[in-house]
Design brief:
With about 325 residues, the chain is α/β, with parallel strands linked by helices. The chain has one domain: Thiolase/Chalcone synthase (Peroxisomal Thiolase, Chain A, domain 1), CATH 3.40.47.10. Helix content is about 30%, strand content about 25%. It has 10 helices and 13 strands. The chain has helices spanning about 20-25, 30-40, 50-65, 90-100, 115-130, 205-210, 220-240, 260-270, 280-285, 290-300, and strands at about 5-10, 15-20, 40-45, 75-80, 105-110, 135-145, 160-170, 180-185, 195, 215-220, 250-255, 310-315, 320-325. The strands form 4 sheets. Strands 1-7-6-4-5 form a 5-stranded mixed β-sheet, with helices on both faces. Strand 12 (about 310-315) and strand 13 form a beta hairpin. Helix 3 crosses helix 4. The longest helix has 22 residues, at about 220-240. The protein is globular, with a radius of gyration of 19 Å. The protein starts with a strand and ends in a 5-residue tail after the last strand. Bound molecules: coenzyme A (COA). The site of coenzyme A has 20 residues, from helix 2, helix 7 and strand 12. Coenzyme A (COA) binds near residues 33, 37, 224 and 285.
Amino acid sequence: MAYAAFRSIGAYIPPKIMTNADFEKIIDTSDEWITKRTGIKERRLSEAGEASSDLGAKAAQIAIDRAGISKDEIDLVICATVTPDFLCMPSTACMIASKLELPNVMAYDISAACTGFVYAVSVAKAFVESGMKKNVLIVGAETYSSILDYTDRTTCFIFGDGAGAAIISATEDKSEAIIDVNCSSDGNYHDLIKTPGGGSLHPCSQEVLDQKMACIKMKGNETFKLAVKTLTSDVKVMLEKHNLTNADINHFIPHQANYRIIKAVGEALDMNDEQTVVTVDKYGNTSAASIPMAMNYAYEQGKIKKGDNVLFDAFGGGLTWGSALFPFSPKN
Ligand SMILES: CC(C)(COP(=O)(O)OP(=O)(O)OC[C@H]1O[C@@H](n2cnc3c(N)ncnc32)[C@H](O)[C@@H]1OP(=O)(O)O)[C@@H](O)C(=O)NCCC(=O)NCCS
């Protein structure tokens, strides 16, 4: 049987910075309030005309180079995004494949909001273990700036743009294998985080434009409470299932939505600051890109070494949630 190894990580961080002080100029808020309520100090923005696939292709190229494979060896491209280049088609994964010059490759998108990258790990693992694919490129790429209402002071300051990517490859060495991925959802909570217009329920119309219905609307406070509860229980279930404790985890990488959420979850799980990766202060919430961007940050700081146990913990619109547990397994 083939196992699936998490071989490499990469990210593309757009250089353009939007600080809390920049938000003070456009909405009724303050750096002090945003910092205290979220821990966010700044976030990145793509340039006009720069789409999710542009960010994703740049992150992907880094992940491919670090995996030490030729791009021709990639036989599946999955892009997790809720800010695709185009509303319906072509998929952002197809655009990434085209930008990387990978013509004859299976490519498609996953829509699971902030949990998207963990869903992609789950699907890549299944494809590799089934023997259908050998080298899967997974990408989380978002340009939230394209769906934000910059007059909505309750939501617009939270999100940012960016992309992260990884290569998941077949191996026969069980010690390299992704241990487990557990993903779930509950659509009964669909109203908490939503882009209400522009889809088949409310197709694009003057009303959709006037009411900014294609922009993200979020019930922040209710989402906050569910996020803390779900992110905590998700990890407890994963660790118990594998007879592990928090001490077995070298790098705990939770979804980067709000520092208060990360802190509350970390405390409930007894994860210390050394184990827990935090980038929300620098990048805000980049949805499906948040976990791979955070992992890449720790990797580039020299913190993540071969064989280290990594634990992803994600939560987002849908609602969706999921966790992934694996040893980091670069070839060399
Ligand atoms: C959005 C969020 C930061 C708001 O923080 P909060 O502590 O829940 O704040 P509340 O919504 O209860 O609002 C508190 C007060 O701040 C005000 N407020 C809202 N936005 C503000 C802003 N940008 N600046 C200043 N004040 C603001 C509110 O109007 C409210 O005022 P009131 O008490 O006079 O009514 C927080 O709820 C959050 O991070 N939620 C989760 C988001 C998330 O995880 N999303 C993605 C999941 S993938």
